[in-house]
User: What shape does this take?
Amino acid sequence: NAGVTQTPKFQVLKTGQSMTLQCAQDMNHNSMYWYRQDPGMGLRLIYYSASEGTTDKGEVPNGYNVSRLNKREFSLRLESAAPSQTSVYFCASSRRAGAVMDTQYFGPGTRLTVL
Amino acid sequence: AQTVTQSQPEMSVQEAETVTLSCTYDTSESDYYLFWYKQPPSRQMILVIRQEAYKQQNATENRFSVNFQKAAKSFSLKISDSQLGDAAMYFCAYRSASVQGGSEKLVFGKGTKLTVNP
Assistant: This one.
């Protein structure tokens, strides 16, 4: 039982390049999330998917797109990377967003640097 | 919008001693959930403990316990018998219980870096 996995672990991009961060969970969770963590800050929600087939914006969605590929997988795409998107990206999953005592479980993160 | 404040950027404790990390939050809601997450150098976010706002009893998980003061909007974490493996960043987080309040998302504080001295 791997929990939440993310690929890649590290990535360096040049400004304007595109890339997709991959996330998968094997806990049969309905809801998945993407957060970013900047130095000296807590995590901030980028996008989430409450259930398969739905996605919604979080606090900082500009410059990102997401795809809920199936129940297990939720990807985050940067179409044209900018230095301001240099951050550590975390994927999380939970049984059901908004449910009583729903708890989010996190992946190991992806450190992204945009030059 | 809800906010979470951790006023101690760094804390240190001697091995086997007790340390308390502070967290305050601002909300107009009466029903919500509070969490403490640990982030060791590996960067993995690990759930330490959680508390339902409607429960008066403070949550406890082995050496970790909270002091939840709803009226004061305070949610501190106490680590007893500190171990070297407790060294990490600790994040306090809030989640609304209502859809209107954004029950899908966690609102995090900026974290407290805990050092455990041998």
